[in-house]
Design goal:
Layout: E1 5-12, E2 16-22, E3 28-34, H1 36-39, H2 42-57, E4 68-70, E5 77-81, H3 88-95, H4 101-120, E6 123-124, E7 133-136, E8 139-142, E9 149-150, H5 171-176, H6 181-197, H7 207-216, H8 226-235, H9 246-264, H10 274-281, E10 351-352, H11 363-368, H12 374-394, E11 400-409, E12 414-422, H13 425-450, E13 458-465, E14 468-477, H14 487-490, H15 500-505, H16 512-518, H17 525-544, H18 546-549, E15 560-565, E16 570-575, H19 582-607, E17 615-622, E18 625-633
Parallel strand pairs: 12-13, 16-17
Antiparallel strand pairs: 1-2, 2-3, 3-5, 4-5, 6-9, 7-8, 10-14, 11-12, 13-14, 15-16, 17-18
Length: 642
């Protein structure tokens, strides 16, 4: 890839794959390669060019520099130095808050200095959060400029698309969509508080609940050391003008770090430079750093460098990091049978619960499956278990997920994953959807790209319990399911009446960003009127279905809400009533999808092209998670679910 030899795989996500690479002089690099299907989208390629251009502007001691890139290649890519170490998020999850004041002050000073460097060249990061800070052996590094933008460009407004992650978004961005250096500093204050306490300063929960606390509540800073608390409090001020600049915060934190250094280092050995202070006070144990086995240039054999990487993926493409999986860059690719389907999920539709026909996986086929044999299958097993382990750490409170074993049934061409899961109904739906999505993505990457000669094409999830027999809960064809859409995404059984595939055909899938945007109160009269009418109708019909939904409680606007995502021309309807089971949620979502669709069509008939909303999505939220149930395109009344 460019001047770099690809010798392994570090991780993957929705945007692309990050590979381990080596330069001619032996320098280890991380090469971020965009998925081919996304490279075909002009808008995505334009965003990638912007990322590269902005990243090339930014250099500094606490940033990860861009080494090289090719945005015009058939498969675009960029390369950065390989940076070992856990993310701040991974470290806190495994070991709790930063243990020493010196380490905490180092983190605060270095990350503030990184943002000062970014802001000085006219760039705004816009996604400062623990997942984007790596704790390297030599100090913190800030990464991921995938959504950065030039400070002098048009800001994102209420009619744009909200970027960022709930809990790390500033009050002004929630209110108006405005982003800027001040928003980065708000997120920096939350980041330092999280590092000091192990808690998010505005708590956890549904996105709209967190947004409300950010806009009107006070942060929980109990446990932030007194000397540091003042600058963190100012950074978390509700008004942007009341926050310190990144340069001011960095200077204050460097002074605190110097004061800390005098307490732990003798006067004659006191560091005189910031970098030396970091070396003297940084106290993060280095993670395991893999040995990168470089294949000979004349060999096309796949050679094994199969050590698990305890490091973050530069570029933040994956929720975690997978084992190094060797493979020559020109030797992989998909087999002919892996031709992408125009409607992912039509032939390889995910099936929740064991299907009735004889060809479906079962407890018997699971019992017949064997453990991994050979290099390729061992690569697959390690990749699946690692990615599922990372997912287990990321799932929300109230979801206890433990991956089990990976088995292979070669005659049936199936890969099995066993697991244990404890949660309520909503948490189970959410967790199994994410488990399936993660397994599909891992298998597409490891089997189709790294080991295309393996015969497998279907993955199967098997839930185990203490007092019950193994139960097949999910199976899907990961070859034809090119987008790794889940059962909840693809539930198009004849009885469901869903038309969400129309949304997929149009290249749109509802997500957390759109849901967060819909939670911002609208000021548009037509939006308010349509949302109010739709909400009233849905609430009335929901309460009329109480016997079917298994509740005597009368629901209202507190539990059922409607909002708009202008950037994607979508209306969202969501419920945070968490006592329905899976079947009841499906029944409610089917009714709600029909009402949402009809509301949009009726308003378009009334207002014509002045009404921009043509899509709808129905979701349920609870705790720290959400699940999209139904979505589609509202063109005519005949298109709407009955």
């Amino acid at each position: 890839m460019g001047p770099y030899r690809i010798i392994g795989r570090l991780g993957a996500g929705g945007m692309g794959t990050v590979h381990a690479g080596v330069a001619a002089d032996g320098t280890r690099v991380a090469v971020k390669v965009i998925h081919p299907q996304q490279a075909q989208e002009p808008e995505f390629r334009a965003r990638f060019r912007r990322e590269v251009e902005l990243s090339s502007r930014v250099t500094g001691p606490y940033l990860v520099p861009l080494l090289a890139a090719d945005t015009d290649a058939e498969t675009p890519w960029l390369a950065t130095p390989y940076v070992p170490g856990p993310t701040l998020n991974e470290h806190v999850a495994a070991r709790g808050a930063l243990a020493t004041a010196g380490t905490l002050y180092t983190l605060a000073a270095a990350t503030a200095q990184a943002l000062a460097t970014v802001h000085a060249v006219g760039v705004v990061h816009r996604d400062v959060k623990p997942q984007n800070v790596i704790l390297t052996p030599s100090g913190p590094r800030v990464l991921d400029f995938g959504i950065a933008h030039a400070a002098d460009s048009t800001s994102v407004t209420r009619t744009g698309v909200m970027t960022g992650t709930p809990g790390w978004i500033s009050p002004e961005q929630y209110r108006t969509g405005a982003t800027g250096p001040e928003g980065d500093m708000f997120a920096w204050g939350a980041l330092v508080a999280y590092a000091a306490t192990g808690r998010m300063p505005f708590g956890t929960g549904a996105p709209d609940v967190v947004a409300f606390r950010v806009m009107s509540g006070e942060p929980d800073l109990e446990g932030v050391p007194g000397p540091l608390r003042g600058v963190v409090e100012r950074a978390l001020a509700k008004e942007p003008g009341d926050r310190p600049s990144a340069a001011e915060a960095a200077q204050e934190c460097w002074e605190l770090l110097a004061s800390q250094a005098t307490q732990v280092v003798s006067a004659d050995a006191l560091p005189t430079q910031a970098g030396n202070m970091v070396e003297a006070l940084w106290d993060i144990p280095p993670g395991d750093d893999p040995t990168w086995h470089v294949p000979r240039s004349s060999s096309r054999k796949r050679r094994l460098g199969m050590l698990v990487v305890a490091a973050a993926v530069v570029g933040a493409l994956a929720g975690g990091v997978v084992a190094l999986m060797p493979g020559d860059a020109g030797d992989g690719g998909q087999p002919a049978s892996a031709t992408p389907s125009s409607s992912a999920g039509t032939d390889g539709k995910a099936k929740q619960r064991q299907a009735a026909n004889a060809d479906s996986a079962s407890a018997q086929s699971w019992a017949e499956a064997r453990t991994a044999q050979g290099e390729g299958e061992h690569d697959v097993a390690r990749g699946v278990l690692h990615d599922q382990g990372v997912l287990a750490q990321e799932l929300s409170e109230g979801v206890d997920f433990t991956p089990g074993t990976v088995r292979f049934h070669q005659p049936r061409r199936e890969v099995y994953l066993s697991y244990r899961l404890t949660s309520d109904e909503q948490g189970t739906m959410y967790a199994e959807t994410e488990i399936a999505r993660s397994m599909c993505e891992t298998l597409r990457d490891v089997v189709l790209r790294v080991h295309p000669n393996l015969p497998y094409r279907t993955y199967v999830m098997v839930r185990e319990g203490t007092d019950q027999d193994p139960q097949v809960t999910w199976q899907d064809d990961f070859v034809t399911n090119t987008q790794c859409r889940s059962a909840a995404d693809n539930d198009t059984s004849p009885s469901s009446g869903t038309d969400q595939d129309s949304g997929a055909v149009q290249g749109w899938t509802p997500d957390e960003q759109g849901l967060g945007q819909a939670m911002i109160p609208s000021t548009d009269r037509d939006e308010i009127r349509v949302a109010d009418h739709a909400a009233r109708t849905i609430i009335q019909r929901t309460n009329g279905m109480r016997p079917t939904l298994g509740t005597d409680r009368v629901l209202g606007n507190a539990e059922l809400k409607v909002g708009f995502d202008p950037g994607n021309s979508a209306m969202y309807v969501w419920s945070d009533y968490g006592t329905w089971n899976q079947k009841q949620v499906g029944t409610w979502a089917a009714m709600t999808a029909g009402e949402a669709c009809r509301a949009l069509v009726n308003q378009r008939d009334l207002a014509g092209d002045a009404w921009p909303y043509t899509r709808y999505a129905v979701a349920v939220i609870g705790g720290n998670h959400y699940l999209m149930i139904r979505w589609g395109k509202a063109t005519t009344l005949a298109d709407c679910p009955a």
